[in-house]
């Protein structure tokens, strides 16, 4: 029975090694690259930016003239009765009349209180807003991908820890069985060892389930086949040189959320400028070339033809509109004030978030070193405990305690590195300089 267990464990370990080597090794850089190419949110933001870019044109702003072609063809069949001044009466049935007019017409607003130029600037700012929103979508997606990726690294480390404890638990069952066989241990010791082994196997299956589900989640974020299997890097490396003052300076200049609020303020200023433009007169010019032809079977003129240019100009000025102009300007000023408030609120929220996240970052960096020492101590303690248990000088409960202490120390060490990496990613994301 013992030989079969050893062979089974050996085959499982060797099979796991072969399976891992056969898998694709996905680096975090590769994951980010795939996300930038495939992610649906990024593609949507890119298309929204294209729409904003296409909207930036003088024609969209109303600066350019408008040229229209027109064609009108009217025909009629009528029964007519005409009494002329000389007393004669003319009556005709099915009289045909036709007229054909066609040409081109130009209309150009040459002055509207500078509203068209403010509109053009607003279109440019809208494009900048789209760029900021695209950057935010990229940073959000890349941050989510990196967090999920390093979560997988942490889970992989926990799987290795559970794998090592399974080996120890199997050894313990083997030792307990041998001791029971030669009469140095009770059946209770064998049963306790087997129960603990079953518990460790359950934890391993739960951890494997979580690991596989997280892989599916990462594949979803990369917008690729959810069944693609891969292997992540074995270790998490944390940048321990982030400086709070530098992060705050980066946030002020590069954070896309804050930049978006500043752009929204500029848009509100331009909208107010367009509203105020209604106080000035609007001047437009018109021109065109028309060709006309008409025919009538009854009347003084049987046919008529005309062609030629026409031109002119016009002006409009609102004198009174029920005080709506004043109301619109007041509303525009309130909207501008709200935009300024939004900037102040965003700055405060970002400052609060970066300071609290930085404190978490420092704490987790400190814990990495502490948990590294704890893991070494727990490993040494476990090695000593295993040897003592092997020669039968310590009870089962002490063996299990040392085993659990080692596993918990490895898990805490792994989690401290993951939490520190998580804080690092969030800080760089806030600063707008997350490595893409």
UniProtKB/TrEMBL annotation:
Pfam families noted in UniProt: OEP
InterPro entries registered for this protein in UniProt: OMP_efflux, TolC-like
Keywords for the protein's UniProt record, in alphabetical order: Cell outer membrane, Membrane, Transmembrane, Transmembrane beta strand, Transport
Annotated Gene3D superfamilies: Outer membrane efflux proteins (OEP)
Subcellular location: Cell outer membrane
Family: Belongs to the outer membrane factor (OMF) (TC 1.B.17) family.
Protein name as annotated: TolC family protein
Organism per entry: Flagellimonas iocasae
